[in-house]
Every structure is written in structure tokens, then in C-alpha cells.
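ingest -> validate -> predict -> emit
validate: passed (alphabet ok, no gaps, 76 aa)
predict: started
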Amino acid sequence: MSKMQPELTYKQMFFLIEALDSRIKSYEGQLDSEETTDDDRSDIENDLISMRPTLEYMRNILTRYKDESIAKTTVG
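emit:
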């Protein structure tokens, strides 16, 4: 599988992180619900397996971007 490296601004990445974080929290709430079927629970758990590391990866990108921006403003 090839990897994508989209050109996103800091703000765009921030919005995507917020949306993914919100979705993860929603899924976790559904897992706690007695109304969630076993099939739905399985689908949610499988999605969370990919979503959690993706969120962490995106947060790391945002932190690096911020750190690089700070470094550029202090040099020179």
C-alpha cells in the first residue's frame, strides 16, 4: 500500500484531529451501550484498531510542525 502525504495547513490538520478524536469518543460510547449489537461492536473495535494509531500519528505530525515553526522563528 502506498502512503499519502497530503499538503495540509496546521489548522486543517487540527480540524481533522478534532474530528477523529470526536469519532473515537463516540465509538467508545457505543461500545459501552447495551443497545450495540455484537456485530456492530466488532466493527467498531476493528475501526478503533486503525483510528487510534492514526490519531496519534496525526498528533505527532502537528507537534513536529509546531516545533519546526517555533524553531524557524527563533533562528536568525
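The radius of gyration is 17 Å.
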